Amino acid sequence: MRRLFRQFSLLVWLLLFLLTGCSGWSLAADVTPPPNYTPQAPRPVAQSVAEPSSLFPLVPPDPAQGKVIYEEKCLPCHGEKGVGDGPQAMNLPNPPPPIGSLEVAQNARPADWYAVVTSGRLDRFMPGFSESLSDRQRWDVVAYVLSMSISSSAVEQGKSLFATQCAECHGEDGKGMGAETNLSRQELLSNRSLQELVEVMRNGKGTMPPVAGLSNEDLLGVAMYLRTLSFTMVPQEEISRSTPESQPSSEAVADQPLSKVVIKGMVKNSRGEAVADVPVTLYVYSGMEMTLERSTTTGTDGTYRFEDVPYEAQQIYIAQATFGGATFNSEVFHGIDAQGTELVLPITVYETTSDVSLVKVERLHIFFDFSIPGKVQVAELYIFSNTGDKVVVPASPDQPALRFPLPEGAANLQFDQGKIGERYVMLDGGFGDLTPIAPGQGSYQVLFSYELPYERKTSINLTMPFDVTAAVVLLPQSGVKLQSKQLMPMGQRNVQDMTFEMFTAGNLQAGSALDIQLSGKPGGNTGNASGWVSIVVGAVMFGLALIGSGYWLIRQRRRAQQDVPEIPTGETEDALLDAIIALDDLYQAGKLPEKVYQKRRTELKHRLEAVRGIKKE
Q1: Where does the sequence pass through the membrane (predicted)?
Q2: 256-349 — its CATH code?
Q3: Residues whose CB falls within 8 Å of the CB of residue 573, separated by 6 or more in sequence, listed in order
Q4: Cβ atoms 500, 475 nearer than 8 A
Q5: C-alpha closest to that of 497 among 469, 539, 437, 529
Q6: Would you call 352 helix, strand, or coil by DSSP?
Q7: What CATH code is assigned to 360-545?
Q8: pLDDT at 167 (0 to 100)
Q9: Is the predicted pLDDT of residue 16 greater than 50, yes or no?
Q10: 65 burial class (0-12, 13-18, 19+ CB within 10 angstroms)?
Q11: What count of other Cβ atoms lies within 10 Å of the Cβ of residue 1?
Q12: HSE-up (13 A, CA, CB side) for residue 277
C-alpha cells in the first residue's frame, strides 16, 4: 500500500502537468527530505517579482539556447513561428496570441513576458515553468521569442542611425558616460517595450531632446538595435542557422567551473525581523542521496553562513532552521541555477500555537474503489490552509492538533506517509496527526484510506474535522449508485479506460456530516487491487485540472443534451465553480503568485455571484 501511495502522489502531479497544456515538469522536488522535514506552504515563485520593474536577467540571455527550449515547451501551442498555430492550439478554448508577430512583440516588455513564463496565465490556459526551467532558461526563451520579429536588416539600419543620431551622448556601444546615459543596462531595457523606446525617442524624456527627422520605421529599427545592447539578441534568421552546440555563448567560455560555493542567508520571523541564535542545518543532495550535512547557528543579525561547500550543477541545496520546536526550510536551490560563488537561502520562521481556529480545509477529495469483494475502499485527500501567522503544533505528544474522525466500521487504516505511533496517534473514533502546519495556502495535506463492509448497500457518514471550502467525490461507474442531498452531480469522465461520476459540495461546516448512500452490485469497471492507483490518479487528475483538461467540452455536451437556457455571459455556475477549484489547486501547487491568485479568484467569485443572481431572477 505504501508503494501505491508513492505512485499516487507522483502521478497526480505528473498528470496535472500533462493536462494543463504545453508544459514541462521536473522531478527536481522528488528528493529525499531532510530529517524532521516539515511540509512548508508552497511559495509562489514569482511573488518576489510583483513589480515588473524589478525583473532583469543577471547575464545576457542566449536566444540560441532559448530556441531549443521553445521547441520543446512552447511550440506545441504557439507554433514554429509563434503565430499560435501549434498542434495543440486547436484544443484550447482561446487561441494563443501571435507572440512571434511584430505587432504583438513591439508592445511587450521582456520582464512582463518573463513573469508570464514563470507564473503562467491561467485565464489563457497557459501553465508556468518556474519548476521545469531555471531562471536563466526562462530569460533565454523570452529572448528567443522576442527575436522572432527582429530582422537583421532592421537591426543594421538601426545601428547606423544610432551612430549618427545618438552615439554622441550615449557612446558607440550605448554605455554613455554614466547611469543616466547608459542604454545597455539590463534593468532598463528588460522593462521597456520597443514601442516605449520609440516614444521616448520621438518625444524626448527629461534632459534628452526628441530625435528629429526619423520616421516611425527608423525609430523602431533603432529600438531593435538597442535591444541587442542588453540581450544577446540575434535576429531570427541568424538563430535558425545556428545551434547552441556550434555557437556557445561567450559566458560559457569565460566562466570558470565552480568547485566550491558559499551558502548563506538570513532567518527572519513573520514580521520580517532577524532572529538570532537559531540552529541552521544545510543539506546537500545528489539525486536521492544526501551527500553533505552541516550545522551552524545564526548570529546576532540573524544571518548564517557555510563556507567551502562542494558544488556540482546537478546538486540540490536546502537549509533548515529549528525554532520553537518546529523546523522550517528554505526554498530548494538547484545547483544549475547558480549565478556566482554565493548561494542565498533565506528562511522564514514562525511562532507556534495549538489553536486550530484559523485552520481550514481548502479541498477534500474522496475516492471509492470496489476491487475487493465485500468491501469498499475509501481514500480521503485533505488539503489544508493555515490562515494565521503561527505554526499550529500539538499541545503535547499525545494531544494532536489535527483530529480525523473515521466512519463506523472503518478498518485497515493506511497512510500515504508516516504510521501510527510516529506521525499519527489513534484516538477514540479516529486518529490524530502530530505534524505542525505552517501558515499559508495549501500548507499541509494528508492522504489516507480505509475499508468498509459493502454488500450491495451502505450508508457512509463522514464528519468534517474542519470547515471545508470544497469537496470533490469520485465514483467509478461500476453498477454502484451514489445518493446524497449535499452533493451535486457534475457529470462523467472517461479516464484510464474507466468511467467516473463526479460530485461536488461546498462550504461544509466543521462537525457537520457528509451523508453518502451507496447502492448496487459492483461489476465491470471495479478495477483490481494492483490497478487501484491508476484509477485514483485518473480520477483525481480530472478533479484537479478540470479547466485545463477540456472540461468545457463536457459542459457543452451536457448543455446540448439537457437544453439548458444560455446565460447571457456564456458562463454557468458549474463552470465558474470548476474554475475556482482549479485556480485553488494551481496556487496550492505553487504555480501562481499570490497577487495574481487573489485577483483572479475575486474576479471569478464576482462572476459567480452575478450568474447566481441571473438564475434567481
Answers
A1: 531-554
A2: 2.60.40.1120
A3: 608, 611, 612, 615
A4: yes
A5: 539
A6: strand
A7: 2.60.40
A8: 73
A9: no
A10: buried
A11: 13
A12: 1
Where do the CATH 2.60.40.1120 domains begin and end in the chain?
256-349
CA distances from 468 to 67, 438, 485, 581 (A): 45, 18, 17, 12
User: Which residue from 386, 391, 392 is spatially nearest to 362, judged by alpha carbons?
Assistant: 386
Mean pLDDT score across all residues of the chain: 74
Distance of CA 80 to the CA centre of its chain: 26
Q: Which CATH architecture has domain 152-232?
A: Orthogonal Bundle (1.10)
Beta bridge partners of 453: 375
Q: How far apart are CA 305 and CA 311, in angstroms?
A: 15
Name which of 492, 134, 38, 546 is nearest 336 in CA terms.
134
- Write down the H helix ranges in 20-134: 63-73, 75-78, 102-105, 110-119
What DSSP designation does 522 have? Answer: -
Q: Helices (DSSP H) in 148-288: which residue ranges?
A: 152-165, 167-170, 186-189, 194-203, 216-230, 236-239, 250-254
For the chain, the residue count is: 617
CB 313 within 8 A of CB 261: no
* pLDDT over 70 (residue 521): yes
**Whether residue 115 has pLDDT greater than 50:** yes
Distance separating alpha carbons of residues 119 and 116, to the nearest angstrom? 5
Instruction: Identify residue 296 by its one-letter amino acid code.
Output: T
- Whose grid coordinates read 543579525? 301
126, 127, 132, 133: CA torsion to nearest 10: 50
From 286, 270, 290, 404, select the one nearest 347 (Cα to Cα): 270
